[in-house]
Amino acid sequence: MSPELSAVVVVGPLRERAGECLRSLLDQGLGERLEVVVVDLAGGGALPVPGGEDPAVRVLESPPSTTFPQARARGLRAARGAVVAFVEEHAVAFPGWAEALLAAHRGPYAGVGPAVVNGNPGVGSSDIEGLLACSRSARLPSMPALAAWRAVCARLVARRSGKALASR
Questions:
Q1: Per-residue confidence (pLDDT) for residue 44, from 0 to 100
Q2: Which regions of 17-156 does DSSP assign to beta strands (E)?
Q3: Of the candidates 59, 69, 62, which has an alpha carbon nearest to the alpha carbon of residue 44?
Q4: How many CB atoms are closer than 10 A to CB 7?
Q5: Which of 133, 132, 119 shows the shortest CA–CA distance to 88?
Q6: Which helix or strand (DSSP H or E) is residue 152 part of?
Q7: Is the dihedral of CA 115, 116, 121, 122 positive or negative?
Q8: Is 134 helix (H, G, I), strand (E, B) or coil?
Q9: Could you tell me the pTM of the whole model?
Q10: Which SS3 state, helix, strand or coil, does residue 59 take?
Q11: Could you report the average pLDDT of every consecutive run of 10 residues in the chain (168 residues)?
Q12: 3-class secondary structure for 110-133?
């Protein structure tokens, strides 16, 4: 049976926090409906990724010179699930995250994304702020799904700044 959801996680030398990420994914309770694809960039002498021995986890070793986009692309190519989620190795999935994500994909939406909480409190920023900045970039191609994503991001930015946005 093919999994419904593939979670792709790119892991470097920070093994401990990657282990927390994998535990949170494996604790989702999906059983064979979930696979975790770990793209390991730490190199041959690194300790194994904690949790990488679980049958639901496939570890793909890549050279440390592999770029992050190349690693994600490799994970995507290896994924067998109908739904693929990119999960940062420092992120922890809340209980029920995977079921909610799959349920949302069965809905009438053009795109689906999870709620994001800063996994690095006190650092001042998280990856979501970089993602929001990229979504506002005028250099991105104009596509219907991208336009919808930009609208969602604009609402998030407005909500964060306390400004109301008119519905269109």
A1: 75
A2: 34-40, 57-61, 83-86
A3: 62
A4: 31
A5: 119
A6: helix 144-161
A7: negative
A8: helix
A9: 0.70
A10: strand
A11: 93 85 94 95 82 92 92 95 91 90 86 66 50 42 52 59 46
A12: CCCCCCCCCCCCCCCCCHHHHHHH
Taking the alpha carbons of 132, 160, 151, 99 in that order, is the dihedral positive or negative? positive
Ramachandran bin of 162, using left for φ above 0, alpha for ψ from -120 to 50, beta for the remaining angles: left
The pair of structure tokens assigned to 31 is: 């059983």
CA 28 – CA 98 distance, rounded (Å): 6
The answer to whether residues 101 and 112 touch, using CB atoms and an 8 Å cutoff, is: yes
Number of Cβ within a 10 Å radius of residue 138: 5
Whose structure tokens read 């440390």? 64
Separation between Cα atoms, residue 16 and residue 13, nearest integer Å:
9
In the chain, the amino acid numbered 142 is S
Task: Taking each helix axis as running N to C, give the angle between helix 144-161 and helix 127-135, from 0 to 180 degrees, rounded to the nearest 10.
Answer: 120
Which of 22, 18, 60 lies closest to 41 in space, CA to CA? 60
Residue appearing with tokens 């990488």:
52
